[in-house]
Amino acid sequence: MKTWNQLFTRSGWILEEQGKNTFDCKKETEENLQFLQACLEKADVQYVLKNRELMIVQELMDESNWIRAVEKAAKERRDPSYYFNPEYDELEICHLDLYMMGTVRQLNRLGFSTTLSCDGHDRRFPIICLMKDIDIDLLTSILRLFGIPRVSYYEMRNHYKLSLRIKRSQLLDLAEQLSNLHSEWLEQGIEYIERQLLNQEIEQCLSIPGSSGEEDVIRKVVREKMKPYVDYISVDHYGNLLAEKTYGNGNGPTILLNAHLDTVCEIEPGRTIQKNGTIWTSSEGILGADDRAGVALIVMIAKHLNQSDFCGKVKFIFTVEEEIGLVGARHVDEYFLWGVDAAIVLDRRGNSDIVTSSGGIIPFCNSQYGLFFEQVTKEIGLVGWACREGGSSDTVVWASHGIESVNLSVGYGNEHTAKEFLDVQATYQTYILLKRIFQKGRELRRTLRNISTMRCAQ
User: Fold this and answer.
1) Which PANTHER family match (predicted)?
2) How far is it, in rounded angstroms, from Cα 32 to Cα 91?
3) Beta strands in 211-329 (DSSP E)
4) Are residues 58 and 17 in the same domain?
5) Which residues are within 8 A (CB) of 398 and not within 5 positions of it... i.e. 6 or more apart?
6) For the stretch 194-205, what's the b/e string if a residue is b when 16 or more beta carbons lie within 10 angstroms of its beta carbon?
7) Splitting the chain (458 residues) into consecutive groups of 10 residues, what average pLDDT does each group show?
8) Same structural domain for residues 123 and 244?
């Protein structure tokens, strides 16, 4: 269920949430505020609006019901001949296509001035026309960060015509993602934006409770985050979140990506995340970066893969009860692991470990698999990364199924204590490594075939 803030943002309003169901409307135009009132009345939502402060005085409603109310109110106001000139006009969202309202509003907020748009009406792909004075290459790069596949644009005489190869319902998700961008980030370039988006993802995951056996809330949040970027997602009989996606023609390796949802103990209610440069700590109790950093990385890489050139399949497993003995991983049904060529676990402390065994006693993989990761880190200039021994993690379980497996550092340290910290710069480096690993999918497949051939020859 979406919050009221999400519903308003996804449908095109720009309000500042002051507290639960309370919003400051001072930045909203009078026309758009009147339209919002009409929508609330069509939806039979009880509210109080006084001095441009809006208070919703009833429980949440399903987004599909909200969308129907917005459409009813828009039909009474929409002018088919409406033309928006961003140099002179304030955007009146009631005249836009239903599913395009939020995306167009956010684009204009960020300075990507639009002139015309169409949500495709589920008959064609959505299109947006933008002024020629915008940085169209930056915009397309941002859209790719959000997992929009095959973004393309055409340079017309007076504008750019942007085509989005997504369903119109996904425009609502895009609006929400664009709302997380700060306009000042745009001046710093795409790498800076990518770092900030990863940091946002980490912070969101760190804000959600979920100790071992109590993963319901974090599982629900992660499921909603992953759903737009996978072909299939479900919760198994034990509570693990399983998903998979075929990329390109599927003719490539099948990789398992894994992190665990639970924290060793509950995150303290009301605590704050203290940020000292790239080092994050908790004001009280554990930070929870073990393993919320790994969870955030998988969400980010799922978005990246959705618009990448990788060919193959990825199976995603977010396990429960890892902290009390790898319990969730041990309960994953065997059938879900069928066909997996290799596993990448994201649950290691530090900033440069490629863990290939448990204490040097239980091997996780053939040495060639670990060395493949080492070589990639050298190619992209990551310093200090090497194959090392490690401790217990879900990697033990995947390796016991005969899957070539490694566990990568994700930047946390002093885990399971009140001194736990996360170096978000190290987390970002792991993200860069993952992107490169999937970019080299063909070479990875050859490495795995060589390992398989050697095994057969023994």
Assistant:
1) PEPTIDASE, PEPTIDASE T
2) 8
3) 232-235, 241-247, 254-260, 273-276, 279-282, 312-319
4) yes
5) 256, 258, 329, 337, 340, 343, 345, 364, 405
6) bbebbbebbebb
7) 92 93 93 96 94 91 95 91 78 94 96 93 94 94 94 91 94 96 96 97 96 97 96 97 96 97 95 97 97 98 96 98 97 96 97 95 94 97 96 96 97 97 98 98 95 79
8) no
